Amino acid sequence: xxxxxxxxxxxxxxxxxxxxxxxxxxxxxxxxxxxxxxxxxxxxxxxxxxxxxxxxxxxxxxxxxxxxxxxxxxxxxxxxxxxxxxxxxxxxx
Length: 93
What we know:
By secondary structure, the protein is mostly helical. The chain has four helices and no strands.
C-alpha cells in the first residue's frame, strides 16, 4: 500500500480509537431502563438499539466524525499548501 495515495495507517487507527472513545463514553451514560422499556413493550434488541439508543448517540457520532475529518484534513492540507515534491527515482531502467 502506498501511503501517498491512501494516507498513513496511523491516521485510521487513531481515528477509530478516538471515535470509539466518544461513542462508548456516551453509551455508558445512557440509562439502560430506556432499552429495557422498549424490549418490555415488544421490541427486539436490535429494534430497541436502532429506535432508542442510536438516536441518542447520533449527535456524538457526528461530532466524532467531524473532529476526525478535520484532523485528517489537516494532515493532508499542509503539505499541499507548502507544495510537496514527488519522490524521484534513483535509477531508471
